[in-house]
Amino acid sequence: MATPLAYTAHYALPAAKVRAALSDEQYWTTRLAEVGGPGAHLDSFSSDGARLKVEMTQAIPAADLPAQITAVRPGDLIIPRAETYDGDSGTFQAHVEGAPAQVHGTVTLSGDENSSTVTVAGTVEVAIPLFGKKIEAAVAEKLTELLAREAEFTGSWVAAH
C-alpha cells in the first residue's frame, strides 16, 4: 500500500504568471540549478503553448538521507522525474535509480489575477518487504521539503520576472 504525498503552495501572484513560469525553459534550468540537488539537470523540455513536458534528473546526497533509506540503498539517490501539463493540470512521476521506489500523482494550478495555488497530490511506493512503509514515509518527508523549496523558488522567480 502506498503512502500519500500532498503539498499545497500559495502565491500572492496571478495564476497566469505562475503558468508562464512553468512554460519557460529557463525557469526549469535555473530551478534545478538552485534547488535540484548535486548534478541536477534538465533532460528535455517541450512546450507547444497548451501542452508542456519536462524531464529532469535530480539527486539527494546520501549525507542528507535518513538511516532507514541508506541502510537499504547506500549512496546518493539519483531521481529521474517527469512532469506533463495540459493547461492548469498535470501529472508527475519519478523513480529512484537502482531501487524499487516510485512516486506519481497530479499537479493542479488554480487562482485568479491576484493569487494562485498549486496543489500536489500523489503517492510514494517502495516495494521492499517489512521496511517499505518506513522508507515511503521518509521519502514523502524529503519530497515535501523539496516541494517547499521549489515553491519558494517559484515565488521568487515569478516576482522577479
Automatic annotation (TrEMBL):
Pfam families (alphabetical): DUF2505
InterPro entries: DUF2505 (IPR019639)
Superkingdom of origin: Bacteria
Protein known as: DUF2505 domain-containing protein
Source organism per UniProt: Nocardia stercoris
